[in-house]
């Protein structure tokens, strides 16, 4: 299966999961489980939610225990939240200010979810392999992030 097909199918499944469910946390929990199940060679998939000014707080996820709070000023997730731009990091150990929540993680892609100009969350995917993610992964996950903007974040 091509990467484009994989992400298109995942997005369709996410839309179906969320269609009749208004609860944000329930939806994010199912989405993180779906991503964790569908993507090969990952060790963490989930969300950090903006719950305080310039601060991300752990949300629904799949994987090992994670950092609970990440300031917008730190790490790959913080960079995505702060710049409102996706972060594609081939080797997290080369990323200045990387936060090692799981020492087994070696590459990462983070998609900011922006609603009305504000970062409301980030979608964070980690892999134990260096250079696991490419532009096609980023684009597929960005399409999922774009859809997530339509959920009720209030």
UniProtKB/TrEMBL annotation:
Family annotation (Pfam families): GAF_2 (PF13185)
> Which intervals hold domain GAF?
28-147
Superkingdom is Bacteria
Q: Which PROSITE patterns match?
A: UPF0067
Query: What is any one of the record's Gene Ontology cellular component terms?
Result: cytosol
Give this protein's Gene Ontology molecular function annotations: L-methionine-(R)-S-oxide reductase activity
Per the similarity annotation, which family is this?
Belongs to the free Met sulfoxide reductase family.
Record-given protein name: Signal protein
- Organism whose genome encodes this protein: Idiomarina xiamenensis 10-D-4
